[in-house]
Amino acid sequence: MKANKFIQIIFILSSILLMGCTKTVTQEEYDNMIYEKDQQIAELEEKVVQLQDHIVSLESKIEEVNNQFERLKYENWRDVVPEAESSLDDLNNEINNGEDYSSY
């Protein structure tokens, strides 16, 4: 019985303490919070679009490099190598552009 009373007293004191800790938020504060969150969401959505574009570009450049090296099967390497090097340079440039996204 004493333990039960003790638990009830702790519960009542905790409830009183918690009620004193609540803060009322005004409509203006709430609207500002919503606006800030909407801004953050818009910024993150833009970053997602940029990353998607970067991924598409990387895939395209990788495909081009693969195509150039496939040409080695049926074309003279002297004709293929300069274009393959150019494709590799394009891919490396796109990879370096991706460093801007590493902070995401």
Explain this structure.
The protein has 3 helices and no strands. By secondary structure, the chain is an all-alpha fold. It has one domain. Helix 2 runs antiparallel to helix 3. The relative contact order is 0.08. The mean pLDDT is 83.
In short:
The protein is an all-alpha fold. Helix content is 82%, strand content 0%. The protein has three helices and no strands.
Observed structural traits:
single chain, 104 residues, mainly alpha
Topology:
Layout lengths: L1 H20 L5 H44 L6 H21 L7
Radius of gyration: 30 Å
Strand content: under 5%
Compute the number of strand runs. 0
Range of helix content: over 70%
Query: What class would the helix/strand composition place it in?
Result: mainly alpha
Mean pLDDT across residues: 83
Stretches where pLDDT is under 50 for at least 5 consecutive residues are none
Head-to-tail CA distance between termini: 57 Å
Output the number of helix runs: 3
Summarize the main sheet: none
Please write the string of helix (H) and strand (E) elements: HHH
How many structural domains can be distinguished in the coordinates? 1
Broad shape:
elongated
Protein name: BZIP transcription factor
Organism: Acinetobacter oleivorans
Keywords: Coiled coil
